[in-house]
Amino acid sequence: MPSALITGITGQDGLYLAELLLAKGYDVHGLIRGQNNPRRDLVEGLLPDVRLHNGDLTDLSSLIRAMRDSDPDEVYNLGAVSFVAYSWENAPLTTDVTGKGVLNMLEAVRLHSADDLGRIRFYQASSSEMFGKVQEVPQRETTLLWPRSPYGVSKVFGHYMTINYRESYGMHASSGILFNHESPRRGPEFVTRKISQAVARIHLGAQKDIVLGNLDAERDWGFAGDYVEAMWLMLQQEQADDYVISTGETHSIREFLTLAFARVGIDDWEPYVRQDERFMRPAEVDQLIGDAAKAKAALGWEPRVSFPELVAMMVDADVEAQKAGW
Ligand code: NDP
Ligand code: GDR
Questions:
Q1: Is residue 26 domain-shared with residue 58, that is, in the same domain?
Q2: Which of 3, 89, 195, 326 is least surrounded, with the fewest CB atoms within 10 Å of its CB?
Q3: Which domain holds residue 36?
Q4: Do 132 and 105 reside in the same domain of the chain?
Q5: Centre of ligand 2 from the C-alpha of residue 71, in Å
Q6: What angle do CA 273, 255, 322 make, to 5 degrees?
Q7: Does pTM surpass 0.90?
């Protein structure tokens, strides 16, 4: 039975990936941080077969211990301070977790597999945020990186460290440059879920309006369930490599609002939406659109859920959740 260790198991992607690997017959281990992590119950309830190990990406000794106790064939490094807006307020913490945490994890893998450095396959959760002030449209694996936030800069560090460990030690270390991917499990701080939750509450009369920042930013949004399959596919390749994972379509926050409100029968959303400086960023990433041709050719990967299907899925799930009183 193959085995895998997932950092960031309590996050959106960690949950989908763990489900996918369990369905494939993996022995799945997850790293969980902190004393009395409030999301431990969620993971244990949803995924009782996952074995949890205490550890923190800023604490190398805990990662070495988790590697020893899980002895995985594959490591998926999904843990991060992942909220871009928060990364300006907490740049040193973001650097420690999202940047240096990758180095810590690579070191833990290297030390654990010193006898055969290609033995453990490593996946790094790189991001389209690394493209930032985009230097090419659409963005591909070779596009020059120009990050625009402490989060983006930290991801660039982790990305190149992963490539460096592959080139220096021959480790099977791959990086997935994933564009935005969403789901009903998306954290409520991210714009798509913030909108789907608010639309559901407005529809049910529980909320009056929604306050947002920049409505003109454009993102290449896909479904998280599709994207975790790409992570797994990358680690099944003989050679480690880097891949852009995206839909190849870009949509503005305004378009997301239009589809989300229309789903509950509201055609004119303007009266329900206010803008506030509070949600504007010191430096914005205006438009992202990815070219996943390499992943399609090498991995046979393609997204399945369309943008309208994604919006409908998220709004419907939040309407149900609100009705159930969650
Ligand atoms: P989430 O924010 O949902 O999850 C982040 C995870 O990281 C949580 O499990 C969190 O655990 C964990 N974490 C935070 N700090 C630490 C730490 N110090 N040590 C160990 N674990 C920690 O992110 P997603 O699931 O959306 O994303 C997964 C990864 O993919 C992240 O690295 C993200 O940056 C990257 N990514 C995401 C994209 C997206 O659109 N979703 C696109 C491109 C990249 P806890 O519950 O304890 O807080
Ligand atoms: P992003 O996602 O920064 O792309 O990072 P987010 O949903 O936070 O922002 C997307 C765009 O929406 C604009 N926006 C708002 N954003 C939030 N969160 N809240 C608002 O009220 C709001 N109003 C407008 C933002 O300015 C931005 O342009 C996500 C994360 O998952 C990262 O970890 C990941 O690496 C990237 O996607 C790819």
A1: yes
A2: 326
A3: 3-181+223-245
A4: yes
A5: 35
A6: 60
A7: yes
